[in-house]
Structure formats: C-alpha cells, structure tokens
Queue: 2 jobs
Job 1
Amino acid sequence: MGRQRPVVHLILPRSAFNGLHHVLAHRFVPLQLMTVGALCEREGWEARIVDENYEPLPDERPDLVGITVWTIFAPRAYRIADRYRAAGVPVVLGGVHASLLPGEALRHADAVVVGEAEGVMARVLADANAGRMAGIYRGGWGDMAAAPTIGEMYRFYDRFPAWRYWPQYSVQSTRGCRFNCDYCSVIRINGRGQRHRDPEEVVREVAKRMERTKLTAGLFFTDDDFGSDLEYTYELLGALADAKLKVKWTAQSSIGIARNEELLALAKKAGCAVLFLGLESVTRQSLVEANKKNRPSEYPELIGRIHDAGIATEGAFIFGFDHDDRTVFERTVEFADEIGVDLALFNVLTPAPGTATFARYWDDGRIVDFDWSHYTGYWALFEPANMSRAELEAGIRWAYREFYSRRRRARRFRRHLQLLAPDMAVVLAGINWSFSREFRRIEHQPEPPYAPPRVELERLAVTSRADANRAIWLAADQADGVLAAPDQAESTPVTLDVSRSVSRPLSRSRSPA
C-alpha cells in the first residue's frame, strides 16, 4: 500500500545527565516539537514526535527528520542527524542552539531554521517535498495568532502515556522578555519585548484542556516573564478568573510581580498555584554583574506577599559570579530557607552560546570547555574568580543536598501546612522529596567528546556581542552560504536502522540508539 501523506519525525534528543527534567512537576511536554508538528499537519504532513528521553528512535524511514537542538544535547542531535543523512533522509535542525550557531548546525543538516517556525515551516516542507532544501531559513518574530492551538496538538497529547509528563499540559500566552540578563539567551531567540496572544483565546485553550482531564493541577504557562506587561496580565488574569475554571497553574515571573498585591490576588483567583522566580543571587554585587535589577534585601518581604496571596514559590539561584566565594553556597541555602522559598533550583553560571556572558568570558579567555554536552548548569566551564572549578562543582552539589535534606524538608512541610492549603502542602512535600532523590548525586553519562570548529566559535563570539534583537539574524548572515568541510567537526555516529520505509506497516521492533 502506497504512502498517503509524507511523514516527518520530530526528535527531542535525550539528555546525558540527570537533573530537573526528572523531577516531579518539572517534566514538561515538548511543546516546541508539538508546535512544529501542528504546523506540519497544517501542510498535509503526518508528524510523529519522538522524545528520546522516554523512547528509542524508531526503525523506520521518514520523508524528513526535524530535530530540536538545545546546547546541552547539541552533540547528540548532530550525531543523530549525521546518521539519518547517511541513510539518505533529509534533516532540518532548529531550536535555540541551532539559531545561535546555524553554521555549526548546517554542517550536520540539509536545512536550519533560525528563529520561530510559524512563518517559515510551510516553505521548509515544500522545499523538502521538492528535494531542494535551501540551507538557512529565517523564521522571524511574527504575530502569535499564527501559533497552533491546543486543539491542533491533541493528537500528540493523546499519544503520550499519562505518567510521562507533569505538568501534563503547557500553554504559552506571550513570547519574549523585557529584561536583558547577561547569562540568558531568551531575548536572543524570542526578542527583547513581548508579543501576546488574545486573552480570550488563551482562556479557550485552558477550557479545552479542562475538557480533557478531571485533574485540576498540571498546567504550565511557558511564558518567559509572566506579568511583564501589566495591562495584558490584568486582562488575561481577569478573563481566567471570570471563566471560573477549576485549574491550578504555574508560571515564571520576575520577583517584581509581588510589588502589586492586587495583581497577586487576581492571579490566585485565576488559579495560580506556584510562581517560579529568578532570584539568582543573595548579593547585590553579583546581580549587578549579571545585569539584574533585583535587590536581595527586598526578597523576604516580596516572598511573604506571594505567600500571603496563597501562592507557593520556586526560587532559582546561580553560583559562580566573580563576587561569589566559597561561602556563597551556605549563605544561599540559609537565606533561601529563611525567607521561605518553597522549592529551590541551583545552577552553576554557564556562558551559554549567544549571551553577553559568553562574549565577555570568551574575550577574557576564561572558557576552558566547549563540549556543549557539558553546558548543563552543573559543570564549571570557566575558572571562577574566588574559588576553584572543583569547589564550584562541589558547592552546587552540597547546596542541593543541604536544601533538600530531610530535616529542612520536614520543617518546610510544617510551614506549608500553616501557610497553604493542605493539598498544596502535600504536593510541595512530594516535589521536595523528588528534588532530594534526583539531586542526591548529579551524574553525567559518558558521551563521545565534541569540539566545535574554531571558526564557528569565532562567529558565535560576534553573535554574542550583538544587540539581543539582532543576534540570531547576524548569526544567520554569518552562516548563510558558508559551509566548511564536514570533517572539521568532530562527531561520533549514532547506531540507527532507518532502512524501512514508513509506507509499510510499522513494526514494534526497535534498535538501540
């Protein structure tokens, strides 16, 4: 029986380390691939999403492979792409890392999408059908009205086992961020500033989600700075509250949202259960170094206001700034616990590709490791100013063990019972336990070493110095039409059998990746 529709496999490569993506309430659906999948379905393709963290690569030959590339698994994404191309299957790469290093990505692909896919995916698929992939495709930052709806993604949600992801659903109401933090690549990918979806459309998305499940929890707003645009946020929260949907959700926000107690009360009424806050450091000097506006002296009062509204907090902290010394780990854990942070996320300062931090550390010659698989947030990739790399790596491990020690978790649970609803206290206790279990040890599975070509690192340095709203377009300009010999990039093949065509019935057999 002949193929009725062309088939595209959309792959999320597996991560070689344990960490946040295994923690309860932090196992997020691959929304970026689901978005691309829905765009492919609009064009008459059959899209199949493969999350390699949970399933092996299938033994079948698709018409096209799309791989999302994050820095932490870029080497594996390249190895997968190399293997498919060797079998004659065209490959398109996209995502954060591929957008910032399109020249590197293009060494392993027939095409690279730089930026967002909505405005360009139809042309990518048409070119793939015609056998004329055009190298760099510039996506652009378009109106969010073009983004696929949750209804277009149902077939992907329905395919996922119920236990795999939690939160089970993700919704995006805005893209972009108003801030310009040195270490963050968000504004390079989605732009500095914000684009919005119609609030009523967002409410309809959430309502449709409620029709699919009886669970009230399990919804995550993927917005990078929820609450940034006050006028829009009031409109969205008002619409959610008026809809009276029995749903509890989590969102990422700056700590500044707590300065508006009216907004916090409305967020709670609209279903907000947890706010993820980028606190980053307990010292003002380190925040200035990172171009952050936060003031740690305000944290206790602002965290208290969020708790008074009945909302829990997850605080993120970074170690390794030049003002950090060996005492920063204990000071941070004590401070976070003292001000009532309910969940804590710790990371080592990472010079992520495309960021001002990368540009500064590159110019100073401080980066000592360019194997992207080590850019996990747990490795010291540069020489810290006031401690050794070994001390920095040992410090983050100690911070996780100490903050999530049994003694501190028990004390936290007692506080939650006093401040929050009993069911929320139990949920937070479970997440605290999950953190303690996952971060008892931070492990990295052995991966073949990877070294980016020097010319790509030099281009990346230029991109990283650029204005945020120009960075990825400058990266595309540098890479467009410039291809180096493939053997300049070190790569180890992935074992994969794609000899069968998907025009025949699928087998349940699988080959190891």
Job 2
Amino acid sequence: MLQLPTGGGKTVIFCQIVKQYLDKGKKSIIVVHRKELLDQASRALSKLGIEHSLIAPGERTNPEHSVIVASVQSLNRKTLTFEPDILIIDEGHHAAGNNNWTKAIKKWPKAKTLGVTATPCRLDGQSLGNLFQILVPGPATADLISQNYLAPVRVFSPQASVTAEGVGTRVGEYIQSQLVERFDTPQVAAEAVDNFKRICPDAKAIVFCCSVLHAEHTAQAFQEAGFSSACLHGKLSKTDRESLLQQFAEGKIQVITSRDLISEGTDIPDAQAAILLRPTQSESLYLQQVGRVLRTSPNKRFAVIIDLAGNTWKHGLPDDPREWSITRGLRKTRVVQISKCTCCDSILNKAQEFCDNCGTKNPDYKPRKQNDDSAAPSLSQEEVAKLEIEELNLADITDTLVRQIEREIRLNWTRSNGHGLYYYASKEENFSEAQLEAFERFLRNYTFNESEIFGPYGVKEYSHLEGKVIDLLDMRDNGLKEAHAREESSDPHEYKLDSWRTDCAWNTMFERIFNRFMEKTFTFSNQDSLAYKVYVGKYSKHVHTIELEDLRFYETKTCQLLTFYELDPLLQLLLGYYVPLWGKYGFRENIEWELSYQERLAEKKAKYPEWADWKG
C-alpha cells in the first residue's frame, strides 16, 4: 500500500509503475470506482504514450492492449482471459471485507497488488492488513508544502450558529439525516456566503455539504448573493459534469457545491478554497476534502479552508504530522493543539507565536519544547520492529524456513557431484547485477577455511592457505587451464574426464562453502544467535503463490525489520536456491501447514488454560 497526501501525485506514480511493467512485457490493470477517476488515470497513461483499454459502460476492450483501466463495478461483472502481472487499486483504502474491491483482487491471486491512497484507514475499523502486507508512506503534507509540491494552507474557523454536538452516530459516522436537519438551513448557507465574502471573495471555491439537496440549496444561496455557482452531483451526465468543471477552470463558475463527488480522488488544481459545511467523524474524509484545494496552480499563493463544521478542531490542521498503520489506520503522533486568532478567525498551532494571516499575537502561544509531552514517546528500534510485526499481522515462520534450508543442505551433501548452486548462479538472466556481483565478490575474497570445505578430513596441499584471503574463482580457472594443458599428453577421453573432474571438484567446493554460510546464518545449530528471524503475513495460508519477496526478515543485530530487497544481495540469491517454493516438500506447502498449525494452537490455548505454555 502506497500512502501519499492528496495532491502528491499518486496517479503519476502508479502510471510510471505501469510503464515499467509494460517495458518488461508485463500486463497491468488499474481499478477505480468513479468515472472521473477512470478518465483521470486514462489521461495520465495517454500522456506517457501508453495504449490502453477501458472497462466501463459503453467502452470496448482491445485484446492487443497490455494495460486496462477498469471501473470496479464493471470489472466484477466482466469475464476476462486477461492475466495481469500487477493490479493497482486506486483509493485502496476501500479494499476491505468482502466488497467489490476485494472481489476484484481475488480474481487474480497470482498478480501483485498495489493499493494507493492518501488515507489508509477506514471508519468502520476494518484492517487493510488482510490484503496488503506493507505500507509505504510517502512524504508528509508539510514536507510537500515546504518543497512547493503543495500549496501552503490557511484555515479559518468563524463562529458558527450550529455545531454537530448532540448529533447521533452510526457505524462511527454522524447520522446523515440529523446532520441535514441541522445544517441545511438558510442561516448556515448565509454564514457560508458571508464568511466567503469576508475571507476570500475572489477565490474559486468548493463547498462540501451534508446531502445533494443541501448542496443545491447552498449553491442557490451563493447565486442569490451574486456569485456564479453550481451543484455537482452524480445524477448529472458525464458531459454535464465535464462542462461544469471546465467552466469552473475557466472562471465562468466560481463556486461548486457537492456532497461526495469531489471529496475523493478528483483532480481540480484551480480550486483555491474549501468551505466545510459537513461535520465528519472520519479524519480520512476530512483530509480528502481539504486536500482538494492543496494542489498548486499558477495563481494560487495559498489554499484557504473555511471550517464551519468544526472538523479542524476535531482532526487538527491539514499539515499536522500523522502516522499511518496498515492494520490500525491513523496513529496520531501528537495531540491536536490549536487555537484561534482573535482578530481574523485563523486557526493557529499553539507553537505559532503570530498569526500568518494578520500578524496578531497568538494568545495561547506555547513554545514547542524539545521534550514535548504531547509528542508520542520515543521507541527503541526493537520496540519499533515489534510494533511493525504486530501491525503487519505477521507470523513467525523461522523454524519452517530453517528446516527447509537444512533439508536442502543435506541434499547438497548427498547429490551426485554437488554442483547445483554454481549452475544455478550461472543463469545470469535470473538475477540482478547486484546479486551476481555479491556472489562473485564473496568467492574472490574468501577467507580460506579448510574445515568448511573439506570437513574433518582436510587436504594437506591446501593447509598453507588457512586464514588467508584468496580468489577461489581465479584458482578454479587455473585448475581448468592445467587440465586443458594435459590434453596433448593424454587420451582425449581421459582429458575430458580430467576436465570434468576438476570442474566438479571446484563446484562441489563452492557448494560446501555456501552450505556452511547458510548454516551460520539460519540453522538450528546456531539457534541462540540467529542472524535473522523470518516472518510472513498470516493471510498467506490462503495464498498458494507466496514468493520470497513476501517475507520479512528481523535482523537480530540491528533490530530492524527488513524486506527481501533490503537484505544483502548475496543472501537474496542464496535464499532463492536454498528455499525452493514448489514441490511436495516446497516452502509454500510447509508455510500453509505451519500457519494453519499456529492458528489451531492459538484456538486450543484460548479454550484450554492448561495449554498456555505449550509451544508445540
């Protein structure tokens, strides 16, 4: 799951990922849930010169295209022979439970899945960690503002005649009918118009309302006050919606009112102000709404938020620091600490001494201390890793992986000639340049250890090399040259046999060296000082396409939780050899059994107290 603030360029990023897949001859599907988002993704792909098909009402699919942009509703109704290598879920926070998004993901279990969203959390509390393994947080809103990728923001909170206090809640959100009854009044509409006139009368504005009818009433109030205004809602045709947004971009319409249609995903960089008339318990929805006006444009010095719903007091400023979790959603790192300018109603952080709108001194100013009690307590690296393991819903499968590696080592000792590893590594097309370089570097800078190579028997002719750094590949090449030199003085058949013996001997030596390397890193004989503990998402027992890239590695020395690609490139290459995925005794089958066993054991412990200390 990729998290990036609204306006940070998620569409551009995932279209570049599609291009990288396409360059490798791989196929992609982008899944969206609104026509506006489908058109937006289509335009971004076209700018990159990527030919693609659309799956939506009235559209046809070209079987020659390797990229599809699909409406999630249409995608689930359609039967495709198309097999994507990657599935990109726009506004990925919708993918939870058993809804349209999860149904689309389950149609292609072999495809990689990338969710993208500004707000990886859900109001219903459902975890996104059942579908997505890793959360990749992008730069914070404040960082993007400081680098001029987003517009600076000024928030105003004028005195409002009504609040959401006392409004009932259902499934964690305010009951809409009660909000409409309280906020869809001429008085609230008049307050919105008056504050717009006072704060930013020349700005292009979006007004977020409690219902479509509320949006229509508010648009009418702006029209009566002399502002060109229109209501944008889902009942309009595609042509009418596009025409309305085009008129807004050209300045023919100054104020757009809406309920949900432009609160998520829609790109309207010309919007300069947002007027909030819809209270929400959802910080995700709040950030999606205010994010509509944070995009930069040539004539925008800063974005303006006029909050008449009290959302800022509940959720904080748009550019406050926030931390996201793939399982818990939003984790606030700091208590909301804001106050209001006594002169212009601007919302200020309490650590801000003067109002940046009018220069008035902040009456609640408190200099930020180095050890601020409102900040989240600092955690050790080990505590951070444990928290990540919990939040990613990971299961410890170290024992399973260790048994797999030990089995392969035993087979290596008994296999005829034992030169599978060197043959495996010789297929350069299967490995990255960094992996091949690491493999060669290890062999060219090997500290000679006779017992590693020859076991308890030893070979006297090599004893003088003990402890020295030598180039094993160079020694191997010299040995083969000597075998070739004997060609003229020996029988051709004997020469070929001699070359074969020399080659096998060296390949067997390499195999033994790496067997010992993996033993030191992973095996039971070194259980108390394992270099890594290995984890995988608990959901994986339902997935038969698990790859090594799906594993997480806890490095005991640094207490860091690493992805496969953060490991040493040499270890990446070796794991591919020592942990075969397929077959009756392959890693996938063992993982499925292990996770099912852990689940059954947890149920037993919960049911029978006497099982509490049983480790299996």
